[in-house]
Design brief:
By secondary structure, this protein is mostly helical. Helix 2 crosses helix 5. It has a 3-stranded antiparallel sheet. The protein has a domain of 111 residues: Arc Repressor Mutant, subunit A, CATH 1.10.10.
Length: 167
């Protein structure tokens, strides 16, 4: 009896080098998230999720942005962000308002209390990031590493399911 020919598309697996890089990235990313969340909670009572939102808002000239733009910038689904903002609104860190550009959309603004929270949390956060992430990275690898991450981010902005992060 003749063997049935396999006509299914071949799965393309990672090369050994790609597999090594991916596993290394995942180990670093998961461990860094754990350590950053632990440090933020201990030092300032903020979660990593709080900090992600506060950083995005504090970097804006008007300390606010449309909720959909914020979701795209931090890489979250709108439903996750909505729940996070509700908790942050209750703590006085953020405030949702009708958008100044379009009253049909929501605008989230960093409150004075939110700005104080990130100002107080940032020094400890920077110290941890420097000691765990940048200190062990040789200076000659910083430029290529940064360029690789920026290149991947551009690709994600153009080819992922989330809307591109705003400029």
């Amino acid at each position: 009896m003749p063997r049935k020919r396999d006509t299914s598309p071949k799965k393309k697996w990672l090369t050994p080098g790609q597999q090594r890089a991916w596993v290394a990235y995942m180990r670093v990313q998961l461990r860094m998230n754990y350590e950053i969340n632990r440090q933020l909670q201990a030092d300032s009572g903020l979660s990593l999720a709080d900090y992600d939102v506060l950083v995005a808002l504090s970097g804006r000239r008007d300390r606010g942005m449309r909720v959909s733009d914020l979701a795209a910038e931090i890489g979250w689904e709108r439903s996750r962000l909505s729940h996070q903002l509700r908790r942050m609104d209750e703590r006085g860190l953020t405030e949702r308002q009708p958008s100044p550009d379009d009253g049909r959309t929501a605008h989230v603004v960093l409150t004075h209390r939110g700005q104080q929270a990130i100002d107080e949390a940032a020094p400890g956060h920077v110290e941890l990031v420097r000691s765990l992430f940048f200190d062990p990275l040789p200076d000659n690898l910083l430029g290529p590493f940064t360029a690789a991450l920026e290149h991947i981010h551009v690709n994600l902005n153009h080819n992922s399911t989330l809307p591109p992060s705003p400029a």
